Amino acid sequence: MSLRGNCIAIDEAISGYLTRLPRSLRLLAMTFHFFHLL
Q1: Which of 19, 21, 34, 38 is the most exposed place for a label (fewest CB within 10 A)?
Q2: Where would I find the H helices in 1-38?
Q3: Sequence-distant (≥ 6) Cβ neighbours of residue 22 within 8 angstroms
Q4: What is the pLDDT along the chain (38 residues), one digit of tens a residue?
């Protein structure tokens, strides 16, 4: 598996995990992820 493919798989796993969290936790995680990218 390529590095890019691996990153996409991880991103999908994270997205699937976040969808199972309450909205407030998901929002917090998204905010943290956004600032982590900056």
Answers
A1: 38
A2: 3-19, 23-37
A3: none
A4: 688 888 888 888 888 877 777 778 878 888 888 888 77
